[in-house]
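PROTEIN DESIGN WORKSHEET
SECTION A - STRUCTURE
LENGTH: 262
TOKENS:
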């Protein structure tokens, strides 16, 4: 068995007179019965209610490599715990999930992260040294510094270099010096970055003072760091504002690009 998919939160009562188990309890009981007898499980796709997580009866998924959450109701504390109990997890996808807020990703083998949400979900990269591909799409305005902050509010320096990260895809808003500085910090923590995609969205406040942002971007042009391995840059934006154009100039100056898509 290489894949196990749960796509419903409706299960029949197993025995007359006994209470119907919660979806989460049934999911993990079925999984833990199958796992020892069917070999390693490569993919676990869930589309249902997963909170509260039955931690007392949950021994973990020791062979799970891919976790795909789609339209799943799961609290951030439960997902953090679930990830901890998947020591071989390499790929995490969370699409249109409910209940997530501020995640602390402690997953030493995690290589791919993909978030798609209609609201902001922050993901603190606590221990992800093998991360290669990080994608985050939000339907509403999102602060990158808050999105990758420890508590979802205050931007911290990333604890490790993301030496294995080669693809970075984000939505961002160049509306403040703090936000722009943190985006540049994130890029500098990815010395082997090869492909960069940014969707630049408008600021929530129409009258934003951009002078500090422009000063920061111009100052970065004289800094020593280099994005020598960055070969593909894609930027999508609706307004050709001065700060966006300056950001593009900075990326081009610091990289040895082969392809640029605007």
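SECTION B - SEQUENCE
RESIDUE ASSIGNMENT:
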């Amino acid at each position: 068995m290489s894949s196990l998919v749960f796509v419903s939160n409706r299960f029949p009562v197993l025995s007359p007179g006994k209470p119907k188990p919660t979806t989460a309890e049934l999911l993990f009981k079925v999984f833990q019965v199958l796992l020892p007898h069917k070999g390693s499980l490569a993919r676990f796709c869930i589309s249902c209610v997963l909170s509260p997580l039955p931690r007392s009866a949950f021994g973990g998924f020791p062979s799970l490599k891919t976790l795909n959450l789609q339209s799943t109701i799961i609290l951030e504390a439960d997902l953090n715990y679930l990830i901890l109990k998947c020591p071989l997890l390499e790929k995490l996808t969370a699409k249109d999930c409910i209940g997530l807020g501020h995640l602390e990703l402690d997953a030493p083998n995690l290589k791919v992260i993909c978030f798609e949400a209609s609201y902001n979900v922050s993901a603190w990269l606590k221990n992800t040294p093998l991360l290669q591909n990080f994608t985050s799409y939000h339907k509403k305005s999102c602060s990158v510094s808050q999105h990758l902050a420890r508590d979802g509010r205050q931007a911290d320096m990333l604890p490790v270099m993301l030496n294995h990260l080669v693809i970075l895809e984000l939505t961002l808003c160049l509306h403040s010096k703090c936000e722009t500085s943190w985006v540049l910090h994130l890029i500098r923590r990815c010395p082997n970055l090869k492909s960069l995609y940014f969707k630049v969205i408008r600021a929530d406040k129409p009258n934003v003072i951009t002078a500090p942002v422009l000063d920061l971007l111009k100052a970065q042009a004289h800094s020593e760091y280099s994005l020598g391995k960055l070969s593909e840059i894609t930027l999508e934006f609706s307004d050709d504002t001065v700060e966006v154009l300056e950001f593009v100039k900075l990326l081009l100056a610091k990289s040895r690009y082969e392809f640029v898509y605007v």
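SECTION C - NOTES
The longest strand covers residues 112-117.
The two ends are 43 Å apart (CA to CA).
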